[in-house]
Structure formats: C-alpha cells, structure tokens
Amino acid sequence: MPVNSHKKRFSAADYLLFSVVTAAVLCLCVCAGSVTIPLKETVNIIRQALYARICMLFGAPASLPEGTAASIILSVRLPRVLCVAATGASLSLAGAVMQGLLRNPLADGSTLGVSSGAALGAVIAIAFGITFPGLPFAGTMTMAVLSAFLSLLIILGLACKLDRSLSTNTIILIGMVFSMFVSSLMNIVITFAADKVQQITFWTMGSLQGKGYSEALILFGALLLFGGILFFHTRELNAFAIGEENARHIGVNVRRVKLVLLIAVSGLIGICVSVGGVIGFVGLVAPHILRMITGPNHRRLLPASAFGGATFLMLADLAARMLLRPRELNIGIVTSLAGAAVFLVVFWRAGRGK
Amino acid sequence: MKLSVKRTRSTAALLIAAMLLALTACGSPKEGGQSPSENPSSNASADTSVTVTDMMGRTVTLKEPATRVVALTASDCEILFAIGAGDTLVGRGTYCDYPAEVLDVPAVDSGSETNIEQILALEPQVLLMSTMSQTEEQVKQLEDAGVHVVVSNAQDIAGVYTAIEMIGSLMGKDEEAASVIENMKSTFQEIQENATGDGTETIYFEVSPLEYGLWAAGANTFMDEIANMMGLTNCFADVDGWGEISEEQVLERDPDYILTISLYYGEGPRPEEEIMARPGWENVTAVKNQAILNLQNNELSRPAPRLAEGAQMLFDFVYGR
User: Using CB atoms, which residue from A161, A202, A321 is nearest to B4?
Assistant: First the structure.
C-alpha cells in the first residue's frame, strides 16, 4: 500500500508537491463561500491588496480595495481560512505524534480527551476571570495549554498503570472515562460560577467564525514553534514506534524526549482549542490517510500530516460554510462525520489484524 | 503488583467520588422556603370552578382559580406578574429572571434536568410549562400526583394573546388579562399606524455575537413579525426560526439596522461597539450610520407582554433617529 515508503526523508520535491496542493485548496476556500463572488473579482481584490501592502511596506502611498466583496474576502474569508489551515495542521501533527508515542492508530486529542481537558482549562480561566493584563487571549490560552499537558500526563499515567501494552480497547476506554471525568469537572466549575454560565456555554459552542489575522498569527506561531520541536524529534519518534526499550537501547533519553514531545503536543492542542473550541477527529483522519501515502516513518509522516491536516480541515470548513447557505454548520459536525467513518475503518482493521 | 492494583483502585475510587460529587452538585434540590398552605379559601358558595383548554388542546378544570403555581418558562412567569398574579408563584424555572421579584421565588430545575420531586415538594396546584419542557411520562407523573399541568405554546403574537387569556382565566384574573392584551394590541396598532416604512429598509437581528458564531432570527420569530409590523424587512427571512448564519452573508445583505440581544458583562466593548469594530463591517449601512440597537433583557425573544415594550423601543430607535 505505502507508496515511496522506501524513501526516508520528506524531500524538497515532496514539500513542493504538498505545498502546491495545500495552496490550491487554500485558494479554492478563499474563492468559494457562502456569498458567491466572481473569481475574477476575487483575484483582483487579492492582487490589489497585495500590491497595496507591498507599497505600504516601502512607504509608498496606496489604498486597499474597498467595497463589500473586498470586505468579505479580506476581512472575513481569508483570516478564517488561514486560522482553519493552521488549526488543521496543528491538530493533525499532534495526532500523528500521539499515535507514535502510544503506538496506537486511534490515539488523538479528541479520542483521548486531551481536547476536552484543554477546554476545561479555558472554561476555568473564563469562570474565575484568569487574565493577563494587556493580552486578551493569554489567560484562556495558558490555562488550556497547562490543562492539556496535565490531561496528557493523567491519561498516559493511567494507560501505563492499567495496561502496559496499550491495546486499542484500553486507549478507547481511558479516553471515554477521562472525557466523562472532565465533563463532570466542567459541570462543577459551572455550578461555582453561576454568573458566567452563559459565557461558558457559548464558549464551549465556539466556532472559527469571526477569527481575525491576530488569531491566525498566534496559531501559525504556535505551529512553527511546537511543530518545529516535533520535527526535530522524528528520529526518536521512530524509535518509540518500535518500542520504548528499543528507544532506550539506541541511546534516546526516553524521559526527557517524552516530556518535550508532550509539552509540544499540549501546546498545539491547547492553543487550537482556546481559539476555535474542540474540533474532533482531525488528528485521527489526516494522519491515518497520509500514513497510507507516506508510510509510518515519522520523518515523512509529520510534514505530510501538517499539510494534510490543513487541507482536510479547510475542506471540512468549506463544506460547513457551503452546504446549508446562508446558514452555517458547526465545523465539528463535518469533521466528526468524516472522523467517525475513519475511526470505524481503523478499528475494524485493528480488530482483523489480531 | 499488589501496589499497582491498589493504586488503580484508589484512582478509580477518586474518579467515582468526583463523578458522584458532580451528580449531587447538579441534582440537589434547592431549598423551597415556603411551607405548604393548609387550606386555600373554600368559602365561596357560587360556582368558582375554572376550565381552560391549554395550547396543546388538553382541558383542565380546577375547582377554583389556582393559588399555588409553579411556572417553568420565563414567559409564563412574566405573564403571571403582568396580570397581577405574581404572588401565587411558589416555584419558577431556573431561567426565569423577569421581573426582579421573580428571583425571590424558589427556583426549580427546568428543561432536560427537570426534577419532578422538586416540583412536587412545592405542592403546586398548577404547573405551567411550554411544549418542549417535559416528557409525557413526567407529565403523567405530575398529574397522578394531583398537579394540573397546563401547556403554553405561543409561536406568534396571536399565540401570546391566547396564552395570556388562558393563564388569566386559570388564575381568575380574566379582566386583568384582557387589559394586558388590550395594552399590547394598542401599542402594536399605534406602531403599525405610525410606521412609514415600505419594506425597502432591512434589519438584521443578531441573536448570538460573532465570537461564538453568528446566529440570526429568521422567519417565524417574534422579531420577524415585529419587523414586518413596522415596515422593515428581516434580511434573514429566508432562514426559518433561529439559525447560525455566515458572517459574509450579513456583509452581502447589508442591513440598514442591526438589533443585537447580546448581553453586556460589564467589561470590554459594549455589544454595539463590538459590532462597529468588527473588521470588514465598516461598509455595512447600519454600521456606517451607527444604527445598532442593543436590547439586553429578552424583550423581543420571549412570548410575553413585554414584546410590546420591545417593539416600541425598536420603533423609537428606527423612527426617532
């Protein structure tokens, strides 16, 4: 099945191919949307905006395109698509790494409950008013990252204590128990913060609507930082995939590397959740499909997953925006539909493989 | 090995303890302050019995007007107070918040968390609820326990009149109910007569702010009915009921007025300011003209007498500019 799996690295040609596909999907998602804007106009608006930006960069006077279509493309669609792309790439990377760490194809932020854990952190921040002056998102973001990290520690701790071989059933059960545990904690928080109930309920329904360039910048920053850390540990991830013993034998500092990986994964999931809410199954669908193309080597899988996750989530978001025009579906509904199907296939294969 | 088993157990015990805590936290009945009244006055010799047909078509007969009522929906509470029967309320749903006096009435869980025992403990004669609140089993349970269940289900302004009339006769306050309805009708009529709009100007009703995904009120909502009444066109009339809509659709439809019912939490920009500051919205006519109204108190979202007040506020805003 795996094509080119003999290749060890993600070559420049691969990067080019994946970038081109991702860029093409990005263009499609900017051109298509709830309101139909002719392609020619879209291209014109973006060309003018780019030109104006470049002029401004060099201090030359220039004006940005105006009008409703320009507002829709530049202020609504483009920032949203960028946020979606960064979120997709981050969640997918995090999923691929967790699958490698736990040696299980069903591990993912949403199936294990790490995303719910992150959401709990954000809700605590809202409920008790944890903010940093001057930084509007920092409070929820920090709490989400911390609580994602804590969740990962608890989940891994439980997994090791219950079943060292980490069978699929154990993973799913732990994910279920942990998610239930987190949702009960969330209810307790809500009981204590009765005056914030409405804000919290709204937050948990959160969507990627209305996200701007600042959020996109944060998401891409996180992707660059934490994704970069992960890219530097592909060799160790490959060793982990064979077994922790094996990793130790070839000289990997298991404890340290694991800690670094967990921090990076928590950072990715926590920041994505604090911006766009819990979006399920992205980290499951994208890496799984890409593993069929690139094979299990993390050196190839991780970059491919980042591109693939971005592409997948952008398409899911496009569907969410287009299917019921002028209404909008929650993006989580679309990813969960796709995710449930992939989940079943993976589970079925894992069962047959025994 | 033993140790690890123990640890697993203690973890499990902790989990279970936490879950139980969550359950009790959610389910504990709130203290009902009132003791059951012993004998509702029964000296009337004339026939004091009241019979109403509720909005599900069920017939309910009481020997005399109700004196102990639990109302689960906010609108029914408002109607009770509007007809001067607020003192009969012995329990209210969690989300009932108007008028302020209603907050002194013991709250019971409503909606999917409705707790029959809580309601029965308040010993009401009548339970007012909307169609969505209860399952049939729960209604049967309540009726077996001697509580008359009366359902209100107003989908339009005419439905609100029906609900007020029904609750009025249930409480023996027919005249008060009639005058509340008369007041509403005259307000609406005045608005209709004074409105000069011919439907060319559009209004966008924002039910949930951008941060949480935009929701608009579409056709078959009170807001839509009231917009039409004052010669405005709801720009999301192609959406049925309340629905999540795309931000770009608002920009494209370019409403002349925006009405938002977002709450203001006392920090950050006010809802109107937040809308005006949204990137890309500067070309929307309502934003250019600062024609954004914020109604904070559910005036236009509840099937209650205050719909008239809300309509008047919107009318004053649109035509008083």
Answer: A161
